[in-house]
Write a structure and sequence with these properties.
Number of strands: 5
Radius of gyration: 17 Å
Distance between the termini: 46 Å
Order of helices and strands: HEHEEEEH
Strand content: 15-25%
């Protein structure tokens, strides 16, 4: 009985998350607030380059949605062999009323490639945008 209740709770939360993700629609405008280490500029570039169907604006008053976030940089240690994140970022997309539509986070390190792979704010932005595109796929005609 306990597992049945947990299953029902899981599917209820999943269904509400899926319903929440559909709150974005094609043609809406998105303002990206300034973030540390210039993460906002990298996210803006990734959204435009990947042709995400939201219009990115630099004027907050004209935006339907607002993306805000933060990034952190960590020191490298000899014992993590380059596989620990040196930078992480998290973002939240909310509408004008403050209702959160989507939130995500990412790090810059690759388990397999470690220090040899590209890293930094550009990598974090790329991963955040990829997760946004998977979580909230918008198809426009």
């Amino acid at each position: 009985m306990k597992y049945l209740l947990l299953g029902v709770l899981f599917w209820t939360v999943t269904a509400s998350a899926l319903a929440q993700q559909s709150a974005m629609s094609c043609g809406e405008t998105l303002f990206i607030a300034p973030m540390q280490q210039g993460l906002d500029g990298y996210i803006r570039a990734q959204l435009v380059n990947k042709r995400f169907p939201l219009m990115v604006t630099t004027v907050e008053q004209k935006a339907d949605l607002i993306m805000s976030g933060d990034s952190q940089t960590f020191k490298s240690h000899w014992y993590n062999s380059g596989t620990a994140n040196k930078m992480t970022g998290n973002v939240t997309i909310a509408d004008r009323s403050g209702k959160v539509i989507w939130a995500g986070s990412a790090g810059d390190r690759s388990f397999w490639w470690g220090n040899m792979a590209k890293h930094g704010p550009e990598k974090v932005a790329k991963r955040i945008v990829e997760r946004l595109m998977k979580a909230a796929p918008l198809r426009c005609n």
